[in-house]
Amino acid sequence: MAHLDVVDALKEDWSLDPFRFTERDGCFYGRGTGDNKGAPALGDLAGSPARWLWW
Asked: Which residues in 12-45 are b (16+ Cβ under 10 Å) and which e?
């Protein structure tokens, strides 16, 4: 499962700066630290070479 959308990150909605990677008590904070865009990227990479086999 993955997503491709992007939502606003207002600093006032965060207790830490969302645009700065922060490690605290063994957890990571900041935009993209727990993102899941790898699946669509790998799907694109895996499908690209195969596409040329049939065209």
From this structure: eeeeeebeeeeeeeeeebbeeeeeeeeeeeeeee
For the stretch 28-37, pLDDT in tens is 888 876 777 7
> What is the residue type of 10?
L
Token digits for 20? Answer: 């700065």
pTM: 0.48
* 27 bridge partner residues: 24
Contacts 24+ apart (CB under 8 A), 2-6: 2/36, 2/37, 2/38, 2/39, 2/40, 3/36, 3/37, 4/37, 4/40
